[in-house]
Design a protein that fits this description.
The protein is α+β, with helices and mostly antiparallel strands. The chain contains 17 helices and 29 strands.
Length: 649
Amino acid sequence: MRITMQTIHTNILNNLDRTTTDLAKINNQIATGRQMSRLSDDPVNLAVALSLRTNLSSVVQYQENLSYGKGKIAAAETSLAEIKTQMIRAKTLAVQASNDTVSPANRILIAAEVRNLFEHSVLLGNSELNGKYLFGGYRTSGYTVAEPNPFTKDRYDGYRLNGNAFTTIDRTPVPPPSTPLAAGDLIVNGIAAGAAAADGTGLPYEDMSATAVAKVINDIRDQSGVTANIIPASQQGSAAINAGALAAGDLVINGVDIGAVAGVQAGDNTTGLTAAINAQTAATGVLATNNGGKLILTAVDGRNLQIQTSANGEAVTSLNGGAPPTDKVYFGAVQLRSDEKFLIKTADGTDTALAALGLDGGTANSGEPADTAGDGEIWVRAVANRDGAVRYNGDRDHDFEIKISKGSNLAVTKRGNVALSDTNVFSGLKRLEDALRGENYTEVTSSGRVTGPGNTLASGSTGIDASNVVAGTFDVTITDHDVYPAQNTTYSIPIDPAFDTPETIRQKLDGIPGLSASWDADSHLQLNSDDPDRYTVAIDNDTSNVTAAIGIDKSVMQSHALQLSMGEMDTIMDNLTNQISDFGARQNRIEIQNKILGDVELSNTEALSERQDTDVTEAIMRLKAKEFAYQSALTAAAKTMQLSLVNFL
């Protein structure tokens, strides 16, 4: 085959062009440090390199997340450590104040410092890092006027709806029909409650009792998130107890005839009537006490309270406040509680079923702004006030997490209800402040040991020194903190040493709504709030000197409260230490994960370098080889191009 000069020239130029292209490519690799500049250079290798670049970019982002998380943990740990320092100071103050030489005025000054510790602890609970709250869980921002930060003073924690409309059914002359809750009558957060069933007491309307109603709410609380607590039924006589005598049938409580009670004095000063009623408590489930001469009956639980009086029984007790004979049934109520806002509705769209809970609609009754009476629903969504409380507004269910890999997160800071509220930091400091101020007690154990509880105070054989006890009264004040402002109810307890015994005094105290009184194993009198979160107690204005004799007066209650606070401070500090340790463990996990990501970054960087980076030494050698080839090609081309047609022929 004959090859023309044109073909030779074309081949020479093509070869030179390829060589110069290779030279340019190698030069570009050396200049940029990259083996590839476009997909066509090496499609497979470039695809792998792009994947490695993506992985490396993710690793860098995860490392930045870890750095951010590490900063949050350090800041949160510092805040907790400072709060623990506050608690150490509070413990020191409690020990100092418990000394008998410290005057009440000085204790008030110490209480002011404890109040500052309390407020500073709340401030530390609202610590921020770069404008984000540390203890808000996932709710690091986005708070409202009603919920301005994770921890808010003087507000409820959670949401509550208080039953306060205690109902009464007058069974004379004709009992009204029973109307218990039917299945579906009440709907709580979209979950229908079942039918109310008899509570097992055998009392009239036992399927309408607070126990029966609370059960239908609590049966669905796992789905609704709402819990029902019982408020026992209670009834106080409309007038003071009159002098007289009761015969059999004059006073029947929960189906039990109290029987004959002779010589009832005005105001029941000898406690004969009160004692007779309390002697039947095991059968009736009802306690009696004397409030300034008026008789009070209180159910011990959520059962109904049925009071039947004859004309004489009503004249003596004034319990039913009506024309004798009377037969009335009094009902307890329920309090609904939830961590979150909730809605309670009735199936028929009226407030009828709400009455079964001891609830009424309308803002004045429910406490909820803009609640309309009679519409069959109550939205519980207002942030309620409560002096000394601390409300947690943050995310209650999730700790703040950072992403550390494609499918994994790592918890960093903890939600505040666990890290702080559950340690009792705030409530413990508030209780210490109350103890120093001499208010809001929830329990006390008497300093005196009673060896003869059934002997009269005047007998001298009770085991306590009652020589200074005289006829008089003392006041017991129960404070209900679930209303705002807190509501005080004072009960005046009459004392006559000639008739009263330590046991009758215990019975009088035990019959006060919200308070329980009992003897411990060592025969000391114990007073306990029925619901420490709601009710507190104070004893004052003792003209009989009996509280000092038994050892439940103001000084003993304060000393007991301070001792409890000292123990509580130790527990709180242990709780805080555990939380701080947990943050330390999270810090260690971040360090470990950071090392893992560092190794991954190094591995990816090396792999990516192998795929995309130029080996400069090798490239220079290839460049020199190409340059030599190019020079040789040019020389050969020059000689070839000089050939004439005659030479060729």
